[in-house]
Recover the amino acids of this structure.
């Protein structure tokens, strides 16, 4: 059983179909899912009254099953269903409920509202009548619990299908995480999210929710070169590359070298500077990974530095200005490359590589396949996509990361992890986790330098 996979609606249906083909009935699966969800509702309600809002599909069927279970253990339960059940399983669940069902919310008020109106698979807006009913009932209850995906939120994208959707205090995901659980704007309305396992097997090619990485301490006989030499190419704005270097020195590489023309006496004395031309500096065969982009600039000098960096044929992290200048003709064949675009840079890359896709997750996946780069599409909904189809969905990190320079820090962590020799996709995943953990430890209102200097503490928290 895989509790980290993130499924599309189609993948979830396929996973359920596999259970049905193995002999489980729809009714039996509904009893399992609704029974486990009912236990969470019972705990949250803590003896308070419960109103269950049921829709016409199997999500509504889950509601009827939960209502019956909660009533049978002695809780006060009311059921509201504006539409008759349309599936066999939902109709059977209604019969087993056997209690009164109101077709209108009227002035119904209570303590806990359970939203089983529509869940995973909804692709069109709620009708005006249903949207108003949901909104009014939510306003007249102290606590709102959504089953699977809150009604009115698109499961595969997190898009809001209606205006003024209510906030759910708790969302109980059935069987597997959906992309909406980790995607704005939908996740902002979901409160606490809990996963309810129901026996779904691992789905091939499913996206995975990023978790705590496994980073080992250096070998007992390690030395600075064996741990990895990371080179960072400076540019017109040297502060950005130095922020990257500060982070890289704390992310596992044994040696970090900054390639820049200007020698700054105030620079961290632990950081080695190389004033040689980029091509000569990168000719050092001991270099294991290179970062180019932070503070690089937009002129011809910057473009030349990018070309020379890629011609060195060293595993590379491309960030910031390097992404703006990148074109398909510049990419060498079979070179491990990690690109770390924000949304604007992702759009630029997609134009340059002729990628057309609707969601940012799909754009990242398509760009990774076309370019053969690992794409770390960073932002409030960070996603990592590999050319081989792997996708990592990143849980939200601190919103205090929205400050200048934190992207440079992320790139520095990434090049350090790549220099240690790990797979590019794994290095990106480790970098994102360390970046988020460092932000958590920093607390509110930190600077990018504070963040970079906290990365070693983030490393220590999981070794």
């Amino acid at each position: 059983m895989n509790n980290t996979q993130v499924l599309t609606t189609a993948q979830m249906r396929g996973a359920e179909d596999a259970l049905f083909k193995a002999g489980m009935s729809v009714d039996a699966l509904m009893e399992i899912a609704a029974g486990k969800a009912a236990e969470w509702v019972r705990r949250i309600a803590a003896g308070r009254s419960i109103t269950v809002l049921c829709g016409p599909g199997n999500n509504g069927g889950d509601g009827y099953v939960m209502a019956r279970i909660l009533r049978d253990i002695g809780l006060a339960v009311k059921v509201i269903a504006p539409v008759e059940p349309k599936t066999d399983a939902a109709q059977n669940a209604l019969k087993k409920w056997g209690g009164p069902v109101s077709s209108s919310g009227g002035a119904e008020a209570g303590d806990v509202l359970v939203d089983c109106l529509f869940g995973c698979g909804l692709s069109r807006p709620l009708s005006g009548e249903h949207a108003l009913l949901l909104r009014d009932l939510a306003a007249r209850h102290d606590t709102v619990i959504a089953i699977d995906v809150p009604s009115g939120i698109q499961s595969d994208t997190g898009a809001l299908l209606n205006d003024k959707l209510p906030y759910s205090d708790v969302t109980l995901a059935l069987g597997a995480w959906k992309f909406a659980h980790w995607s704005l704007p939908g996740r902002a309305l979901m409160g606490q999210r809990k996963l309810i396992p129901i026996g779904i097997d691992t789905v091939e090619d499913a996206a995975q929710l990023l978790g705590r990485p496994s980073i080992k301490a250096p070998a007992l006989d390690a030395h600075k070169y064996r741990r990895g030499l990371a080179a960072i190419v400076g540019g017109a704005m040297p502060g950005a590359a130095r922020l990257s270097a500060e982070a890289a020195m704390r992310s596992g590489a044994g040696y970090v070298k900054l390639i820049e023309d200007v020698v700054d006496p105030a620079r961290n004395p632990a950081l080695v500077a190389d004033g040689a031309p980029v091509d000569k500096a990168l000719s050092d065969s001991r270099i294991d990974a290179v970062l180019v982009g932070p503070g690089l600039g937009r002129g011809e000098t910057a473009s030349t530095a990018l070309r020379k960096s890629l011609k060195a044929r060293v595993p590379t992290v491309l960030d910031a200005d390097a992404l703006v200048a990148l074109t398909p003709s510049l990419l060498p064949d079979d070179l491990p490359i990690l690109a770390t675009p924000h949304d604007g840079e992702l759009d630029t890359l997609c134009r340059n590589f002729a990628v057309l896709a609707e969601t940012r997750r799909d754009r990242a996946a398509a760009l990774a396949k076309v370019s053969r780069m690992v794409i770390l599409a960073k932002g409030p909904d960070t996603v990592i996509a590999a050319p081989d189809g792997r996708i990592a969905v990143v849980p939200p990190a601190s919103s205090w990361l929205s400050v200048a320079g934190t992207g440079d820090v992320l790139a520095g962590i990434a090049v350090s992890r790549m220099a240690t020799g790990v797979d590019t996709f794994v290095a990106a995943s480790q970098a994102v986790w360390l970046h988020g953990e460092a932000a958590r430890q920093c607390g509110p209102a930190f600077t990018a330098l504070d963040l970079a200097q906290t990365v070693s503490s983030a490393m220590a928290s999981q070794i």
About this structure: The mean pLDDT is 95.
